[in-house]
Design brief:
The structure is a single chain. The protein is mostly helical and 213 residues long. It has one domain. The chain is 84% helix and 0% strand. It has 7 helices and no strands. 29% of the residues are buried. The model has no long low-confidence stretch (mean pLDDT 84).
């Protein structure tokens, strides 16, 4: 069976399910782009910040961080505040908490992907109910399923029911897999971010506050 016949057989409800799948895909690629961009920026920015710290140029390090909207830059700006108040040792134990507080930047549109995962099978099951209603209505209209008309009505109703169910489950499974991939990429980024921040903070700790500029 061709894709066109499958979509046609599912009727308008299947179009709604496919629309949800497209929305989920769009936001998946949008979030993946954001996470990969953050990853690329982390490598460049962390090197710049550490080089400035090595030169005891804390002002320059702050400027690098302020030029970025990344999680690394936001947390490092807080690290500099702790450093200037000579409380950098307190900051070390809270790095992970600060990073987790900034994860909303990565997860901004995750809810739309989750929406496509949860709604697609529900709408598919709704299509199943609609299809079965058509079956019984058709049978009642022709007085049974013994004739060709009754059998045709039965087949049409069952096809709508099955197509929408399959479509809903297919979209939900696909988006669930993609969401898992997205979470995995995000988790790796957060681990790398925490490591880069800890490395930068270690370099910062080694420099007395009175020697920086």
């Amino acid at each position: 069976m061709s894709v066109g016949n499958f979509i046609h057989g599912g009727g308008p409800i299947l179009f709604v399910i496919l629309a949800l799948g497209v929305i989920g895909l769009l936001f998946f690629f949008e979030r993946l782009f954001v996470i990969l961009k953050e990853k690329a920026e982390l490598k460049i920015l962390s090197v710049k910040v550490r080089n400035s710290i090595a030169q005891k140029n804390i002002t320059g390090s702050k400027q690098h961080c302020r030029s970025s909207s990344s999680i690394f830059s936001a947390v490092m700006l807080k690290a500099f505040e702790y450093y200037e108040k000579q409380r950098i040792h307190e900051f070390e134990s809270t790095i992970q908490n600060f990073v987790e507080d900034e994860t909303f930047k990565l997860e901004k549109n995750f809810r739309y992907i989750s929406m496509s995962i949860s709604l697609s099978p529900l709408i598919g099951f709704f299509g199943t109910v609609v299809g079965m209603v058509q079956v019984f209505s058709g049978i009642q209209a022709v007085g049974g399923i013994s004739g060709l008309q009754g059998q045709a009505s039965l087949a049409q109703g069952i096809s709508v029911a099955l197509y929408t169910t399959v479509g809903g489950l297919a979209v939900a499974i696909t988006m669930a897999i993609l969401m898992t991939v997205l979470r995995e990429v995000e988790d790796r980024l957060l681990v790398n971010t925490i490591e880069e921040i800890r490395t930068s903070v270690e370099k910062l700790k080694a420099i007395p506050v009175e020697e920086v500029h």
